[in-house]
Amino acid sequence: MVHYKLTYFDGRGFAEASRQVFKLAGIEFEDVRLPIASPEWEALKPSTPFGQLPVLSVDGFEIPQSAAILRYLARKFGFAGKTPEEEAWVDAIVDQFKDFMGQYRQYIYAVFLKKPVEEVEKAKTEVAIPARDAYFKILNGILEKSKSGFLVGDSVTFADLVVADNLVTLEKNGFVSNEEHLKIVEFKAKIQNLPKLKEWIETRPDTPF
Amino acid sequence: MVHYKLTYFDGRGFAEASRQVFKLAGIEFEDVRLPIASPEWEALKPSTPFGQLPVLSVDGFEIPQSAAILRYLARKFGFAGKTPEEEAWVDAIVDQFKDFMGQYRQYIYAVFLKKPVEEVEKAKTEVAIPARDAYFKILNGILEKSKSGFLVGDSVTFADLVVADNLVTLEKNGFVSNEEHLKIVEFKAKIQNLPKLKEWIETRPDTPF
């Protein structure tokens, strides 16, 4: 049996969708979680491929970068789209998500680094909220055209997992409104109520991000 | 025959590696280039999938996001890696490149938006140069272990194309030193001297980015 080990920090962040692929596929994996800024991580860092987490180890063969890991697992277990065109759209949505996160993160860092109130507020109103609005507009447009309720094709893909899990974080941070973003709230519920995911979500560690 | 149309701005940027995949594969494509901030682009924008370029049209079916387009073409024409593990590493390197660009771009925008000299200098020394150093360290590490001189496996992949083409831009902006970054300079030459690429590079429009 292949031994999968997924090493990340103790959060959902950029590893959770990969964990969810394992859960949906019913595949065992070692779920290694390191505290951020910990001596364990500092000790491990130089031996990781890119000096970053997550890293997936497949019988000792290491793969870095969250989307690369996720795509690798999703293609192996059937959650990457059913045609080359579906696969391209799954990839495109995940890249769009990452572009959004690149902007949204400016606000998160401002909070995390305890920047002055005005600076945090500026990052929120001038960067994070416009970025969210543009991203949600794209998601809404896709969901409006979707017959299945999934982002791509007629079954769950890793794009659904990435987007839905991030919505948990956005909700925790007050960036999702049940009234204004109804389609998106319904989408999140649909994905996270898939029986195998629901079971995992109820038992996984509860982390702020 | 499938009709491919690749629409982007009049630059190499996030579309050039896809153009190069077409050239390496010997596949005809329509190379549509719009001036940045042009009325043509403003008119087209609302009808693009994500309000952004590049967009690839495959017999009218549209795919957004540069890496998704590139991966789609590269897998179709055999430049995406030969095993799932090689494919994952190609993806990981391209994602690492995109992370680097997210930081490097802060400097480029500061220049482009004609920010005060001190601000440009700060973006260069505090963001762009450290980001380049971290990125080059990763590339160097990969090239040192490579037996073929390619980033992944024993033949050219889209990771090579993305990295080598961006090195052209970094050179133009003074971010590559022939002495300090010898392995990387040699790598760029190796890729861009592949006969079909060399021919394209000699005849393509010369653009600053």
When the domains of chain A are counted, the total is 2
Count of helical segments of chain A?
A: 8
Whole-Å distance between the termini of chain A? 32 Å
Global outline of chain A: globular
Radius of gyration of chain A: 17 Å
The CATH class label of the largest domain in chain A is Mainly Alpha
- Helix fraction of chain A by DSSP (H/I, runs of at least 4): 55-70%
Oligomeric nature of the chains: homodimer
Q: What string, H for helix and E for strand, traces the elements of chain A in order?
A: EHEHEEHHHHHH
What fraction strand of chain A? 5-15%
The biggest sheet of chain A amounts to:
4 strands, mixed
CATH architecture of the largest domain in chain A: Up-down Bundle
Indicate the mean pLDDT of chain A: 96
Search tags:
Glutaredoxin, 4-stranded mixed sheet, transferase (chains A, B), 209 residues, alpha+beta, Glutathione_S-Trfase_N (chains A, B), Thioredoxin-like_sf (chains A, B), glutathione transferase (chains A, B), homodimer, EC 2.5.1.18 (chains A, B), 2 domains, Glutathione S-transferase Yfyf (Class Pi), Chain A, domain 2
Task: Describe the 3D structure.
The structure is a homodimer of 209-residue chains. The first copy, chain A, folds into two domains: 4-78 and 198-203, Glutaredoxin (3-Layer(aba) Sandwich); 84-193, Glutathione S-transferase Yfyf (Class Pi), Chain A, domain 2 (Up-down Bundle), CATH 1.20.1050. Chain A is α+β, with helices and mostly antiparallel strands and 209 residues long. In chain A, helix 6 packs across helix 7. The first copy, chain A, is built from eight helices and four strands; from the N terminus they run E-H-E-H-E-E-H-H-H-H-H-H. The mean pLDDT of chain A is 96. Chain A is globular and about 45 Å long. The longest helix of chain A is centred in the middle third of the chain and has 29 residues, at 84-112. The A-B interface holds A 49-51, 58, 61, 63-69, 71-72, 75-76, 84-85, 87-89, 91-92, 95-96, 98, 102, 134, 138 and B 49-51, 58, 61, 63-69, 71-72, 75-76, 84-85, 87-89, 91-92, 95-96, 98, 102, 134, 138.
